[in-house]
Amino acid sequence: xxxxxxxxxxxxxxxxxxxxxxxxxxxxxxxxxxxxxxxxxxxxxxxxxxxxxxxxxxxxxxxxxxxxxxxxxxxxxxxxxxxxxxxxxxxxxxxxxxxxxxxxxxxxxxxxxxxxxxxxxxxxxxxxxxxxxxxxxxxxxxxxxxxxxxxxxxxxxxxxxxxxxxxxxxxx
Length: 172
Hints:
Layout: H1 2-19, H2 24-36, E1 101-108, E2 111-117, E3 123-126, E4 131-132, E5 137-142, E6 146-154, E7 160-168
Antiparallel strand pairs: 1-2, 2-3, 4-5, 5-6, 6-7
């Protein structure tokens, strides 16, 4: 036991003596580091003064108000317009309108016919009153440069609306 006490005493003396080293070099390093680093703060950014904005669209239609009249039962007033589901379908009604192209016109006995090419490269002869496209597109006019039609499309709230469309010659 006496041996353990003497050993502990010697180890304590050695550890205390190790802590009492000269720290002058450490203080010199800290002083050099502090003097070498010059801190700077960036200046505050300059902000532009507030410019007021004059809202000039106050008299235009409110985008959050429905443009279609709805009656008390929730039906739209345009719901009287419906696609005719009993009408026999015509050959060009199976293709989307943007896949059809006008390739020319044909005049026969004072009648003007439009020549429409489908995606299968088959040319069809159409006249005013024929249908084409997948949205009940009824041809209303044929000119030398385009075929004009009126489509019946859903209005998004349960009814239908008419939309003008056309196929220009050479276009697709």
